[in-house]
Amino acid sequence: MNIIKKFGLGILITLFLTISANADKIRIGTEGAYPPWNSKDASGKLIGFEVELAWALCRYMERQCEIVEQDWDGMIPALLMRKFDAIMAGMSITAERQKTITFSQGYADEVAQLAVMKGSDLEGMDTPSGINLSLGGSDVKKALKTLTGALAGKTVCVQTATIHQNFLDSGDVGSVNVRTYKTQDEVNLDLTSGRCDAALAAAVAFTDYAEKSGKPVVLVGPTFSGGAFGNGVGVGIRQGGDDAIGQRDAQLLIDFNNAIDQARKNGDISRIATKWFGFDASM
Question: Are 30 and 87 in contact, with CB atoms under 8 Å apart?
Answer without folding.
Answer: yes
